[in-house]
What does this fold into?
Amino acid sequence: MRTLWVALAAWVTLSLTGCGYNALQSNDEQIKASWSEVVNQYQRRADLVPNLVNTVKGFAAQEKEVLLGVTNARAKVGSIQATPELINSPEAFAQFQSAQGELSGALSRLLVVAENYPQLKSNENFRDLQAQLEGTENRIAVARNRYIQAVEEYNVTVRSFPSNMTAMAFGYKTKPNFTVENEKEISTAPKVDFGTAPAQPQGETP
It folds into this structure.
């Protein structure tokens, strides 16, 4: 009887492996781990925003529109709950991606504005925050790429025969992914050239 159970267990294992069940399980877990890292890095960036905005405000309070744009973009990001379930909803995933893209753009505009304020650029706190932001953007790019690869591998398994039959039977569906539109810009960390002489803002004298 024991031999029969062992043989049955071996047969089930081989059947699940051959039909792609194990691959689906493995790929799904990889997606969850990759997504967690994406969220962590985006949260790291969001945590930098208040200090960055306050530092810039101390030297360029008149740049209200840009500062408000960053603050509002961060608030929009914070309003979206990046739960594990989000990666199963194309609509929710698109909203998350759009909100993060808006924050990326707002931060880039803020750093461009900083070029016009020599005292801000030379401020030690600002330089430290800018360096942290650039490093975080690089980590975001790496985390996003890993997630993209994990989802692509999973989606191929879900769509391929015979694993697609297994996916259908167990309720596995394709997952939304980051779009390639503007991927190059998103994956490039914002940079400030501290070695370039800035142009003077209108109304100021050198």
